[in-house]
Amino acid sequence: MGRGHLSLTKGGLLLRLFSHSDPLSEVRHGSVTHPTIRATESEAKLPGSARKNSKLPQRKKDAIQSLGFGLLNKVAILFPYNFWGGDLDTFGHLTEDPSMRGEFFLFYSYSSISGGPLLVALVAGDAAIKFEQMSPLESVNRVLEILRGIFHPKGSSGDDYDILAESIGDGRVFFAGEATNKQYPATMHGALLSGMREAANILRVAKKRTINPSQKFNNSSKEDEDLDNLFDTPDLTFGSFSVLFDPRSSDPESTSLFRVKLGGEKLDMGSFSLYSLMSKKHAFKLRDVDGDGNKMTMLNFEFGVRLVGRKGLSGVAESLITCIRLAK
User: Fold this and answer.
1) What is the Cα–Cα distance from 292 to 240, expressed in whole angstroms?
2) Which of 63, 74, 300, 323 is the residue whose CA sits 20 to 30 A from 233?
């Protein structure tokens, strides 16, 4: 059974629970004493035939041996007010010392159910053994020290979780995962909830972009017009495909800007263009392939080229475009 200490300290109310080997012990809550009894092995007799087969199967013993046994203690502290946020149910703590990784590694908030700002800190493993050798005051001071480190950190804050959760690329790249969830970091359900959050964000952005197809694929921006003007005089053209070479190099391995123009009369929305980077050597090899379908197959499977829209071009591509524009 366990023996409990109830102590009033400056930090709040401390409840320490730890193992006790006495067969008869007492747990005190204020001025009320609750006797508790534990049975010894000799007293725990099984009746009748159950006693004959009371040994556990070996596979059960092996499983118990493999799992092992651990020590888990708790410290409950009642604070003057809730400083950790009413929307937090749990939060964790990591230590740099591997031997103390179980030291107050998890905190449970009972504010919503206890009627007061109550935190319960868990300590396990080797740290729990050392914890039992501490006085109640030392325990409280250590918990408060850890809480100060969590809620007054150096160089980071809860806002960092929100920053990690922000989408980038004009709402084209979204971030999910436990590290983007300020309410439930380092948890599986935190990761799951963040995925649901981002799914909703993606749907919201997609709905905003559901506009007239002719507007969606219309290359009307100044950037698109400038790029289209460059492709008016390509270095290499074949069918729907056009290529602009790097004016700074004649090396066959040098990078070229590749464009495929799709749509036209076959689409009510008009034409639109997709781009990519490829070597000059690959551009000439692609030119010699018959049929647009075969060319696209070579692009995807042999060259590993991924076609993107104008805004999807990388910084390398933008730099190449600038050089081509200056050379024209």
Assistant:
1) 8
2) 300
Among 208, 217, 213, which Cα is nearest to 172's?
A: 208
Residue with tokens 């749907």: 203
* Cα within 13 Å of Cα(211), Cβ side: 8
Show Cβ contacts of residue 319 under 8 Å, excluding neighbours closer than 6 positions: none
- Give the span between the Cα atoms of 99 and 88, in whole angstroms: 28
Q: In this prediction, what percent of the chain has a pLDDT beyond 90?
A: 14
What pTM did the predictor assign?
A: 0.35
Q: What is the mean pLDDT of residues 13-29?
A: 35
Cβ-contact 253, 227 below 8 angstroms: no
Q: Write out pLDDT tens, residues 232-276.
A: 999 999 988 999 999 988 999 999 999 988 765 443 445 678 899
| Strand 24-29 versus strand 32-37 pairing type | antiparallel
Cα 263 from chain centroid (whole Å): 40
Q: What are 42-78's pLDDT values in tens digits?
A: 444 545 554 555 677 888 777 777 766 678 889 888 8
Q: At what angle do helices 315-327 and 222-230 cross, to 10 degrees?
A: 60
- Token look-up 């289209």 returns 228
Residue 176, phi then psi, degrees to nearest 5:
-135, 170
The burial class, CB within 10 Å (0-12 / 13-18 / 19+), for 219 is middle
Residue of 155, 262, 166 lying closest to 219 (CA atoms): 262
